[in-house]
Amino acid sequence: MATRFWRGAPGDSWNGTAGSKWSATKLGATGASEPTSTDDVIFDELSGSSVVPILNNRDAGTLNCTGFTGTIGDGTSGGGPDPYALILPYGDVTLSSGMSLNKVGFVFELFGVSAAYTCAGIASSHIHIAGTGASTFTLVDNLITDSFEAAKTNVTVVTNNHSIATQSFRNSLSGASNQFGSSQLTLTGSGANLFVVAGVTGASTVVFTSTAAAANSISATGTLHKIEITGANAAADWTINGGAALAVDVLSAVPGNNAISGDITVATGAGVQIDGTPLLEQKLGNLRLRVTTGRPNIYYAYVANCTVTGARGVVYNGTSVGINTNLVFSYPDPNTNGLFIGTDNVS
Asked: DSSP string covering 185-244, please?
């Protein structure tokens, strides 16, 4: 294992050894070989403040950018999923708040080893976990990236209660563990497989903000504190899949989502807020909602082919007479727990 310090001139690319690009020591001579997958790569206060293009994919044992004020990537180099350039670290990555990335993503090659990631408020194009063997990916601070995906088995993600802002997040292959703690994950993307996770632990909140007219799907097993859909679009569909294997304290959706469907277990009935308004109603179709404690509350909704189970009954109210069909409410003791149906018609 060696160390490589960036000492390139403005306009020099990461690639190769020509010119004065790399040094083996902090104050040493330049002309050292390009870093390999076993080398510690350092961009520091002596690395300048210019743009460092990346051509194709470049290896790094670890990457430390403490003190660096330049930009890695020129936005046009490509090499990964265009137009991204890719850095392939085999260990830790530490970014610095004074630097920037321009369309650069990371593919962590973790072969039975772990990696820590310090984001420092710098957004990456994506983070991809590859390799073989059991590995742990740990956040040192809040994470900002366009997408996150573990493409290998036995990946444990540890957030240390830090937040995640991304378009999509996926870690669900065999042996996956997502230790979210009390983190908030904010997902801004839309479409299928937007949030696909397994083995979730902690009391995290997952917020979906997209307002796109899209069919969105969420799949999770484990425990979450809250699933919150804040983006409203009359042509948006949200499918939540988890069934009895997904335990959530609170399910909350703002008015205006075209449909919420799927299979989900919610622990705290008082927190089930499927809220529409008299003029802008939620649409629930083919939804199986289990509430294991308390009473689910559904207000102003079009409902079809749904089963709602509440440990203490169901509160349901709406205004669209004749819209709702094949709605089944189930609760253990109707004599004491009861079912309240407002002005809507259920057939």
From this structure: EEE---STTSEEEEEEEE--EEEE---SS-EEEEEEEEEEEEEEE----TT-EEEEEEEE
